Amino acid sequence: MAGDAPYGLIEEAAIAVTPDGILWTGAEADIPAAVAHYPRHDLGGRLVTPALIDCHTHLVHGGNRANEFEMRLMGASYEEVAKAGGGIISTVRATREASEEDLIAAALPRIDTLIAEGVSTVEIKSGYGLDIDTELKMLRAARRLAALRPIEVHTTFLGAHAVPAEFKGRADAYLDEVCIPALKAAHEEELVDAVDGFSEGIAFTPAQIARVFDAAKSLGLPVKLHAEQLSNLGGAAMAASYGALSLDHLEYLDEPGVQAMASAGSVAVILPGAFYAIREKQVPPVGLFRKHNVPMAVATDLNPGSSPMNSLLLAMNMACTLFRMTPEEALAGTTRNAATALGLTDRGVIAPEHRADFAVWNAEHPAELSYRFGFNPLHQRIIGGWIDIP
Ligand code: NIG
Ligand code: FE
Hints:
With 390 residues, this protein is an alpha/beta fold. It contains 15 helices and 14 strands. The protein has helices at 66-73, 78-83, 88-97, 100-115, 132-148, 171-188, 206-218, 235-240, 255-264, 272-277, 286-291, 312-323, 327-333, 336-341, 367-371; strands at residues 13-18, 21-27, 47-50, 52-54, 119-125, 152-160, 194-199, 224-227, 246-249, 267-270, 296-298, 358-361, 378-383, 386-387. The protein is globular. Zn(2+) binds at residues 56, 58, 226, 301.
């Protein structure tokens, strides 16, 4: 997965690795003398890709929202459920009630399911606390997951996810009294790798999010945003003006918004699980992302409301089937571009000076990863040059 052919595919390839990373990759016939004596591990002619990266999840949370799934099937929309006190706010109740241990216990099977699909790096957001203690509790739980499992966790502070019931109608007061102080406290504890928000009619205006981004900037933290998911409020262009790492969802984004992202170098994170689960009809502007060279990532958005989807391979399939992304774009979306969406330059491609994190697949061609659904072809993960799932 490093040459000039489609997918960068190299047939009959070899990769020379040390625990520090990749030294060389190319055709087996061209192995350089300097590494020819290395012990060899035969992968049986299998497909090797970079280990996958899920760059947008809410996998730490309390409870579930199967009842809202039933309500939506009876005709209620995602926004109607939210306005009736359900939605994000109902997960906030369950997350506040859960202990840090409870959150970890509930998250472990979710993270294990991702690991079993070859994921080596996962992003996890807060945003179901909406009070200082619970936001910190979620982020601490997310950090602890990385100590319990062979996976790297990148944490994102999402205090501006929704206005909690106790601040109903007082969004700005919530930002000043809870969200921004929680961000500062979390940063103080080194719990934050990036800052996110939800710019939407049922959440915050772009101007309100900009205040949170100003706080992020003063702490030296990168930003990203849930934007134009249900309507076009101009959140993406606003976030791009802050050099956002990524803009996520984007079904209602227009061409000026795409151009703003292109100028800022922001990644478009495509989240087909949420599109599917809320039965959205408007597809994200994939053609415009291509036209303006905006890199596209693909993620699960794993969360209890709009995307209870625990499979990154399924997200790849859906990105192709629902949005007509190509399987090559879908794979770049869960490797190279997902790394960029997290601000990471040391992974997501098989090339020298990158981490030796690979997924080895029972597959002959990379299109197979997006083509099947409900089937997991992972043979093994190799992390830091070592096999960790035999
Ligand atoms: O990414 N868009 C906002 N936030 C989450 C969903 C949160 C929820 O419904 O619990 C998302 O879709
Ligand atoms: Fe999300």
